[in-house]
Amino acid sequence: MSPVTDRVGPRHNPTAGAALPVNLRDLRDEAWRRLDPAHRDYFTGGAGDERTLRANETAFDAYRLLPRVLRGGGERDLRTPLLGGTLSMPVLVSPTAFHRLAHPDGEVGCARAVAGADTVLVLSMAATTPVEAVAAAMDAADRPGRLWFQLYPQPDLGFTESLVRRVEAAGCRALVVTVDSPVLGRRERDLRNGFLDLPPGLGCENMRDPETGRIRDIVLDADLDWPRIDWLRGVTRLPVVLKGILHPADARLAVAHGVDAVWVSNHGGRQLDGAATAVDALPSVVDAVGDRVPVLLDGGIRRGTDVLTALALGATAVGVGRPVLWGLAARGEPGVRQVLDLLRADLGQAMTLAGAVRPADLGPDLLNRMPR
Ligand SMILES: Cc1cc2nc3c(=O)[nH]c(=O)nc-3n(C[C@H](O)[C@H](O)[C@H](O)COP(=O)(O)O)c2cc1C
Ligand SMILES: CCCCCCC(=O)C(=O)O
Question: N or C: at which end does the chain have fewer Cβ atoms within 10 angstroms?
Answer without folding.
Answer: N
